[in-house]
Fold this sequence. Notes:
This protein is mainly alpha-helical. The protein is built from eight helices and no strands. It has helices at about 1-30, 45-65, 70-90, 95-115, 120-145, 150-165, 165-190, 205-215.
Amino acid sequence: MRDMVFTLIGAASGYKAITRARSDISRFRIAGETFGESHFTDTAVITPIVIAVNATLYFLLAQQFEHDLTVLTYGVLVGAGMWLSLIDIDTHLLPRRIVYRTIAVAMPLLVLSAFFDNTGSIAGMFIGGLAMWCMLRVLEVLSRGDLGGGDVGLGGLLGLYLGWVSYEAILVGLFASFLVGGFFALALLVTRKAKRNTHFAFGPFLIVGTLIAVLR
């Protein structure tokens, strides 16, 4: 019963994410603020896919964490992560208002979860957020613009969730992000759907890497 309830909550989260993303993407396009012109979210089949993915992730979170509050807390990451990923894919934007709003919700929830779930660490949460932000900031400078400021800000949010789990999760999440992103870029090059100077949204890979580290 518990698994079913969280799966349904995840499905609702997915529907909300795709609906919000489409609205934001449309607004960004009208304002001319986009850096990419993909139309991934315009495809009708994306709605059931997003709903199914979020439902599955909530189910996996319910298997990973015993305390319901922890599941809901990481569910915030799933919902916001999907929302941000869809926006980033179509516009190459990671709106700071969404990232900061999610941080404002996530931090008190993670602190509260740590009181009821002894698997988490409040100190680790703060250290993780700072460490992830710093590492991505260094990579932003070294990449000379290939990694954007939005990715760095997102790293601060993801680091909170990773550090709450463990310090090891921070490194695993970052490594998994670049590994999955690298394979994706290689696949595009091999299939000649991209060139070496082609830019693609990296935010979704940071989120995927974080979820891999959390659910492993």
